[in-house]
């Protein structure tokens, strides 16, 4: 599922020349130009959700499935692990994605086993990055170790070599992820012309 993120720009104290972004906080969709509304409406009905609230699906699942209906816990889910995942994703967002005013984020990518290794995942990725290129904005993804080569083959690069680990303190089970970013089309053109690095963090 691709999600289009929009934030208000405020000065970023951690990176010179960068703008830190702040959500509207009202959970409403961002204003769109008249000519863009039909296309975005179709996109949202397919696999995208154009929302400005940063917490999204994980927060919704946690609140609905665990705290409201199963306050004492349940055998097929662990509230502590949902919390660790949510807090970890917030930390990644603050450190790596906050410097983008507008970007597309790939939140979930799943392929039915019947259609694996037939290009279905690549097609879904290309669908989102095509929209991002049309708008001139970057794409971001928090990838599993297994999914990393797929994203790299589609133009994503590591924002850091460090693995991000989501884990409940005291437990052996953990989730390891990589943060990858695909720069906007304009940034990639500038990089090729100047010979600078492929990924450029900037405010768009």
From TrEMBL:
UniProt cross-references to InterPro entries, sorted A to Z: Acyl_CoA_acyltransferase (IPR016181), GNAT_dom (IPR000182), Trichothecene_AcTrans (IPR052523)
Pfam families with a match to the protein in the record: Acetyltransf_7 (PF13508)
Compositionally biased residues, Polar residues: 46-58
Coiled-coil region(s): none
Domain N-acetyltransferase: residue ranges: 42-176
PANTHER family for this protein: GNAT FAMILY ACETYLTRANSFERASE, N-ACETYLTRANSFERASE DOMAIN-CONTAINING PROTEIN
UniProt name for this protein: N-acetyltransferase domain-containing protein
């Amino acid at each position: 599922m691709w999600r289009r993120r929009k934030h208000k720009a405020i000065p970023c104290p951690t990176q010179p020349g960068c703008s830190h972004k702040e959500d509207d906080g009202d959970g409403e969709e961002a204003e769109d130009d008249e000519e863009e509304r039909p296309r975005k409406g179709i996109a949202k009905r397919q696999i995208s959700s154009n929302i400005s609230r940063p917490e999204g699906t994980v927060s919704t699942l946690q609140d609905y499935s665990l705290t409201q209906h199963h306050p004492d816990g349940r055998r097929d889910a662990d509230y502590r692990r949902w919390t660790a995942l949510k807090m970890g994703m917030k930390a990644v967002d603050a450190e790596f994605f906050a410097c983008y005013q507008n970007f597309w984020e790939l939140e979930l990518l799943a392929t039915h086993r019947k259609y694996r290794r037939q290009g279905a995942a690549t097609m879904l990725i290309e669908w989102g990055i095509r929209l991002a290129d049309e708008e001139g904005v970057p794409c971001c993804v928090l990838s599993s170790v297994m999914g990393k080569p797929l994203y790299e083959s589609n133009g994503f690069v590591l924002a850091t070599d460090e693995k991000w680990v989501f884990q409940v303190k005291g437990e052996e089970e953990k989730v390891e992820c990589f943060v990858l970013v695909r720069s906007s089309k304009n940034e990639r053109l500038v990089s090729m012309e100047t010979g600078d690095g492929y990924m450029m963090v900037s405010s768009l």
